[in-house]
Every structure is written in C-alpha cells, then in structure tokens.
UniProtKB/TrEMBL annotation:
Domain AMP-binding enzyme C-terminal stretches: 521-613
Role: Acyl-CoA synthetase required for both the import of long chain fatty acids (LCFAs) (C14-C18) and the activation very long chain fatty acids (VLCFAs) (C20-C26) by esterification of the fatty acids into metabolically active CoA-thioesters for subsequent degradation or incorporation into phospholipids. The transport and fatty acyl-CoA synthetase activities are genetically separable and are thus independent activities. Esterifies VLCFAs in the peroxisome matrix. The VLCFAs are actively transported into peroxisomes by a PXA1-PXA2 heterodimeric transporter in the peroxisomal membrane.
Assigned keywords, A-Z: ATP-binding, Cell membrane, Ligase, Lipid transport, Membrane, Nucleotide-binding, Peroxisome, Transmembrane, Transmembrane helix, Transport
PROSITE patterns, A to Z: AMP_BINDING
Domain AMP-dependent synthetase/ligase: 55-430
Organism: Podila verticillata NRRL 6337
GO biological process: long-chain fatty acid import into cell
Organism phylogeny: Eukaryota, Fungi, Fungi incertae sedis, Mucoromycota, Mortierellomycotina
PANTHER family: FATTY ACID TRANSPORT PROTEIN 3, ISOFORM A, LONG-CHAIN FATTY ACID TRANSPORT PROTEIN
Parts of the chain that traverse the membrane: 107-129
Alphabetical list of SUPFAM superfamilies matching this protein: Acetyl-CoA synthetase-like
Domain of life per record: Eukaryota
UniProt name for this protein: Very long-chain fatty acid transport protein
Length: 660
C-alpha cells in the first residue's frame, strides 16, 4: 500500500508543480530555441548561412510537392525554383550583383516570392517597400535603401509617377514585373471605354521579361561567403522620428525565427499555412512564408485579407494554421455567424495583437484549439511568446516561466515617465527601476551582440537613429538595452500583457502610425498653421485611432483671445472649403490606416514654446469625448470625407455600429 501512496503523492505533487509553474509550456519554448540555435551553429560551421539555402533544401527534398497556392493555382517547389532562376538571370543581365540592393514595391503574389527568391539566390538584398505609401514617404524610403533599381507592380505606377523626378534623381532604374501585354491590355480597355481621350503608354519604366531567360540554376558558391550578420532583407517600420526606418533582417535572425516558429507552431510538411498579411512586413514574409523554407509546408497565400473569403479558403485548401493580427480576428468575430465557422481543420492561429475581449470569443466561436500570440519587432533584440490553450493564457503576449527566465534573463519592464518618455532611475544607484507585478512600464530587451538571441543590428543607413534606440546602465554598469517604446506589464505568474505604445507612434489597423509623419503631411494643406496628431482609444477597437488637433488661418477661424475673450470667429464657407481640401489631401496622400479618424478644430493657439508633449498628453486625455471637447470636431466617414461629429455620431461609435 505504501508504494501506491508514494506514487500517488508524487503524481499529485507533479500535477501541482505543472499547474503552478507550467514547466511543459516553458520546455516547449526552450526546446524550440535550442533547435533553432543548433541550426544556426551548423549553418555557421558549414558556411551555409544564406536564407535562400533553406528554400533550396526543400526543393531538393520535395521538388514536386506543392509549396504555394495562390488564387486556386498551385506551384511546386520546383516551379518556384525554375521561375526564380529565370528572374535571377534577368537581374544578372541588368547589372545586379552580390550585395546590391533592389527595392521591391509589390502586392502579395507568386511574383513577390519569385522576385524575393531570385535576389536571395544572387546574395543580393531586397528592400520591401510598403505598397501603400506615396510622396515624400516613398521618396525617403527609397533614399534610405540606396538601391540600384525599383521593381514594382504596374498598379502602383501612379504612386511612383507622382514622385518620378525625385526617384530618378536618386539614381533608380524602374522596372515592372507586370507582363507588357497585361499593361497594354489595361490601356486598350481604357481607350475603348473613353475613345475621346488619347492615352499615352507610360515610358518611364522598363519590363522584366524574365520568362525569356534561362532556367539554369546558380551554384551555392555564390552564397558561400554570406554571413549571419549580412542583411537578408530590409523591412520598413514606423518609429518615433516620423519617417520609416529600414530594419535590417539579417540571415541569422531569419534563420532563428523561421526555425523557432516552425517548431513552436508544430508545422510539418503536411501542414497548410494560410497567409493574408502583406509580405512587405516581416510578419507575413519572414515568419509567415519564411518558416515554410524550414518546415517544407504548403503556403496558401491571399492577395489580401477578406472577411467573406477567409473561412471558405480555409475549408477549400484544408488549412491547418493561419497567421493573424488582432484586427483581422476582430473582423471575423464581428461578421455574421455562418455554418462555415467550424467546418475548417485549423489547429492553430499564430500572430500578434489579439486583444482579451476578442480572444475567448474567437477561440470558442471558431473552435481554434491553440492561439500562439507573440510580441516581437523587426528591429528588436528579443521576443515574447505565449502558446495559449486555456483561459489562463487569454490576452497575454508572452509567458516566461522559471526555466525561460533562468536561461534567458534578457528582458526588463522598467518605470518610465509616460509624459516625458524618460526612464526613471534610482537616485542612489543611477540604474533603472524594474516594475513589479501589474505595474506598467517600458519593455527593454538586452542588446548584447555576443549572443545570437540578443543581437541588435539596428536600421540600415541610419547609424544615429540606431544608436538612439539604445540605453546603457539599466541594471549594471555599461550594460546595453534596446528601448522598444512599448508599455507592458506582467502579472505575478510572469504572463506579459501589452498596454500601449509610448511616444509619437500608435497602432491602428495592424500598422504602426507615426504622428510626426501625418502632421507633416497635413501641414501642407492650405489653411493649416499648426497641427499635432495623436492616438485616441475607441470603444470596441484595437489600437488607437488617429486624431488631429488643428489651428487654422485667421481667414478661416480667428482664434479666441486670452481667457476666451473675444470669442473665436468662424468663416463657415471657408471652413467647409478647408475640410473638403483636407479630405481630398489625406485620401490621396496617406495610406488608409494613417488617415486621422477625428479632427479637433482648435479655437486657441497651440503652445509651441516648448516640446509640446505635455499639451499633447492633455489632448490624448480629452480624446473625442464631447463632455471634454467643446470645440468643433469632425470624423472620417465611410464615404472617405470628414463630416461634423456630434452626439449622433458618438452614439454610433459607442454602440459599435460606426465604421472607422
């Protein structure tokens, strides 16, 4: 009897320890990290560091298995290899060499992947340009890349033509991946619709006639001297400085990420992974598509996310995994219930930004066994992960149990002044003050280039900006950490939760939006004398919606005097004309996610004698609350224009009926 009781006691103790410390969850993450590190070390040892070699290995193992499905058409690993060989030969014939940079401004498609693979094959560096940007932001992004040529989809030609002189002044050669016959067809169709107007064929770019090139392969010797710290791609990210910055995704980080995510998601060659996120972001490209080059799975790629097609695609293509951002999941939860909701075979959804109020509803309604939520940054030096299967996991962006904390002591949440964004330090020691359980602070990640998992590469061609993201003497003298600019907190069980973005950046529709960038654009509209932009919380919405506080010219609105006397004087006709001009400007010049959803027309001058941060904090607190804001407000309507905002519109938002 005694041995049985001893076994029972041991089992009981084991269940208690597992319940309290979740060692199994910890071990899953440690195992994935160890396997990724082993792959990394082997690649270094064998001079086999190029990310492209991972794709090539799959071509050798399973050449005729399906690697990619796009809009009903399947492509085998061999198909993609031969096509990328042809594109690579075209690049070589047009002067692209090892380590050259080539900018890519394209939509999700097989051609995006083929172009990307062709450049990696040659040990060249693709720079993924956000296909929603235009004007000065586009020019800046291309200037930072300092590339030889820009490859684009023809649909994006108008955005390029708008800044053609400046782009050509940077030395760019322009080529479209869209076949010539398709481009000509679009023009002939337009001519037939309106024969009164003569439409000239564009002549500012050339065509990549890759289908006429050789399909012969390229030796691995071309990539033999590729090192883990060499860039595999440049991926742009918004920051607090206004314009996009090009984060360097090197071969080492890509190797670690693709291997880790494949392990954590339990993706196998039989898996079908659905990707609807844009490939110009690291989430869609490196983590979404890139993991298939380590796992051999099939990628189901969508041109863009569609609520109506999502579950139908999952069913039609036997999807086992899909990638998300929080907003995507909210759209799906808010859609009408359908018999398709549980007819799929999805086992796991992986991504970031799944808010607590959506998580449980999403997991239950669509019967998704596992939600893998993570927190990472393209330019960051660390990551948080939470493979969530039960209620305890809901809402957490990461979990760091005792084993992970012992092996990777590389993250800190420290106290920060949320108004000034200055880190708060201990007056005696001078070191940062670490936050306790449930206390919000800024997440810092160690930037130690002696260790692979804490390496910090920074931004391409911007050394000063790269250094500005680092802080020293955090815990001990001369240590170095990366400032994420994100406000998080953890509970006593070491679950980590995202609270907000600090500084001048907010997140909306899954995109980081720079307030300085938007304010600069709006400042070009005739009638604006001062502008400040900030993010405000909207009930039932993820992230923060943009709001702009504007001071207008005297000819439109003469500001109130001191203490409100005399009152502001408004020229109603001029104000209406201004709002129409502003609507047209933001619709044309800004990506849809970056258009401020609310306007506040200020009747007094903004305080511009200092940094203006404290004043901005007050505006953030006011938000679009009609009880606090007595000045005129407008909101961005589904019709793509600003209209007056009042009690009725506010009720629509609070009730969750308004489309923002």
């Amino acid at each position: 009897m005694a041995p049985i009781l001893a076994v029972a006691a041991a089992l009981s103790a084991g269940y208690y320890i597992e319940s309290k410390y979740q060692l199994g969850k910890d071990l899953t993450m440690v195992r994935a990290a160890l396997h990724a590190r082993k792959r990394f070390d082997n690649c270094v040892k064998e001079n086999d560091c190029s990310l492209y070699n991972r794709f090539e290995e799959q071509c050798q193992i399973r050449p005729y298995s399906v690697a990619l499905v796009f809009e009903g058409t399947s492509y085998t690993w061999k198909d993609l290899e031969l096509a990328s060989n042809r594109v690579a030969h075209w690049f070589v014939a047009n002067g692209v060499q090892k380590k050259d940079r080539v900018a890519m401004m394209m939509f999700n498609s097989p051609l995006f992947m083929i172009t990307w693979l062709a450049l990696l094959k040659l040990a060249a560096v693709p720079a993924f340009i956000n296909n929603q940007i235009t004007g000065p932001v586009l020019v800046h992004s291309l200037k930072i890349a300092d590339a030889k040529m820009l490859v684009f989809d023809f649909e994006l030609a108008p955005a390029i033509q708008e800044s053609l002189g400046e782009i050509q002044g940077l030395g760019y050669k322009l080529f479209t991946m869209t076949p010539k016959e398709q481009v000509e067809g679009q023009f002939y169709q337009q001519l037939s619709r309106d024969s009164k107007e003569a439409i000239e064929m564009p002549s500012f770019f050339g065509y990549i006639d890759w289908r006429q090139q050789s399909a012969a392969g390229f030796s691995r010797e071309i990539r033999k001297d590729v090192q883990m710290n060499d860039p595999a791609s440049l991926i742009y990210t918004s920051g607090t400085t206004g314009f996009p910055k090009a984060a360097v995704m090197d071969h080492g980080r890509c190797t670690m990420a693709t291997k880790s995510w494949g392990e954590l998601c339990k993706i196998t060659p039989e898996s079908k992974v659905y990707i609807t996120l844009p490939l110009y972001h690291s989430a869609g490209s490196i983590i979404g598509v890139g993991q298939s080059w380590s796992t051999g799975c099939t990628v189901i790629l969508a041109r863009k996310f569609s609520v109506n097609r999502f579950w139908k695609d999952c069913i039609d293509y036997d999807v086992t995994h899909f990638q998300y951002i929080g907003e995507l999941c909210r759209y799906l939860v808010n859609a009408p219930e359908s018999p398709l909701d549980k007819m799929h075979k999805v086992q796991m959804a992986f991504g970031n930004g799944m808010r607590p109020d959506v998580w449980s509803k999403f997991q239950e309604r669509f019967n998704i066994p596992t939600i893998f939520e993570y927190y990472t940054m393209s330019e960051g030096s660390g990551a948080l992960m939470n493979v969530g299967k039960n209620l305890r996991d809901v809402g957490a962006v990461g979990y760091r149990g005792p084993i992970v904390r012992m092996l990777q002591s590389n993250m800190r949440i420290v106290k920060v002044d949320l108004d000034t964004e200055e880190l708060i330090r201990d007056k005696k020691t001078g070191f940062c003050i670490e936050c306790g359980p449930n206390e919000v602070g800024e997440l810092l990640t160690m930037a130690d280039n002696k260790q692979q998992n804490t390496r910090y590469v920074g931004y391409f061609n911007q050394p000063k900006v790269s250094q500005s993201k680092l802080v020293r003497d955090v815990q001990v003298k001369d240590d170095i950490y990366f400032r994420t600019g994100d406000i998080l907190y953890r509970n006593k069980d070491y679950y980590y939760y995202f609270a907000d973005r600090a500084g001048d950046t907010y997140r909306w529709k899954g995109e980081n939006v720079s307030t300085a960038e938007i304010a600069d654009s709006m400042g070009h509209v005739d009638g604006v004398t001062a502008c400040t932009v900030y993010g405000v919380t909207v009930p039932g919405q993820d992230g923060r919606a943009g709001m702009a506080a504007l001071v207008l010219k005297d000819t439109i609105l003469r500001p109130a005097g001191k203490d409100g006397e005399p009152p502001a004087q408004v020229d109603e006709a001029a104000l209406q004309a201004f709002v129409e001009r502003l609507s047209a400007h933001v619709s044309k010049k800004l990506p849809s996610y970056a258009v401020p959803r609310f306007l506040r027309i200020c009747e007094q001058e903004l305080d511009i004698t200092g940094t203006f941060k404290n004043r901005k904090v007050e505006y953030k607190k006011d938000g679009f609350d009609l009880n606090k804001v007595k000045e005129r407000m407008y909101w961005w309507t589904p019709q793509g224009r600003y209209l007056p905002f009042g009690e009725g519109e506010n009720a629509e938002i609070v009730a969750g009926r308004a489309r923002l």
